């Protein structure tokens, strides 16, 4: 979809701190993170919601969600991970492209949305890529 920001990110037409990308799935830092390392995992191709995405691709996306969660625990020292996925505006979906929020939880940090700074984006994306294995591509 031409005007979808996540599609533009997947096509390298919009900026993002990408921590993982393969032919089907992309993971990048949320531009308004709730906590340090808040990552979005989306399909490369456009599907509006969980109801539209093919089952095999959904399974692939969930495997990437799991890898990102492990990287947040190991690399960022998170104490837990919250995974959120919204479908439809009434459920809180803002970007109508299937994606999962992988939100690290820290014992002594209160979750609060804020803007992602450039320096933090470079640092956190580097750490997560290094803990996803290899070069972050699969």
Characterization of the model:
With 138 residues, this protein is α+β, with helices and mostly antiparallel strands. It contains three helices and five strands. Helix 2 crosses helix 3 (118-132). The longest helix is centred in the middle third of the chain and has 22 residues, at 55-76. The chain has one domain: HIT family, subunit A (2-Layer Sandwich). The chain has helices spanning 5-10, 55-76, 118-132; strands spanning 18-21, 25-29, 39-43, 80-84, 99-105. The radius of gyration is 14 Å and the shape is globular. It has a five-stranded antiparallel sheet.
CATH homology superfamily: HIT-like
Structural class by SSE content: alpha+beta
What are the low-pLDDT stretches, counting only 5+ consecutive residues below 50?
134-138
Mean pLDDT: 92
- Provide the gyration radius in Å: 14 Å
Number of domains: 1
Calculate the terminal CA-CA distance, rounded to whole Å. Answer: 24 Å
Task: Summarize the SSE layout with pairings.
Elements: H1 5-10, E1 18-21, E2 25-29, E3 39-43, H2 55-76, E4 80-84, E5 99-105, H3 118-132
Antiparallel strand pairs: 1-2, 2-3, 3-5, 4-5
Short account of what is shown:
The protein has about 140 residues and is α+β, with helices and mostly antiparallel strands.
List keywords for this structure.
138 residues; alpha+beta; HIT family, subunit A; five-stranded antiparallel sheet; 5 strands; globular; disordered C terminus
């Amino acid at each position: 979809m031409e005007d979808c920001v996540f599609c533009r990110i997947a096509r390298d037409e919009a900026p993002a701190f990408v921590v993982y990308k393969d032919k089907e799935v992309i993971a990048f830092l949320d531009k308004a993170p709730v906590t340090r390392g808040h990552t979005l995992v989306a399909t490369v191709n456009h599907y509006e919601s969980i109801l539209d995405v093919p089952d095999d691709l959904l399974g692939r996306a969930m495997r990437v969600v799991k890898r990102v969660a492990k990287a947040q625990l190991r690399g960022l020292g998170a104490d837990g991970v919250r995974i959120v996925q919204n479908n439809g505006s009434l459920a809180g979906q803002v970007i109508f492209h299937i994606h999962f929020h992988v939100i690290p939880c820290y014992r002594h940090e209160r979750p609060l949305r804020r803007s992602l700074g450039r320096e933090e984006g470079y640092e956190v994306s580097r750490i997560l890529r290094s803990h996803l294995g290899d070069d972050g591509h699969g």
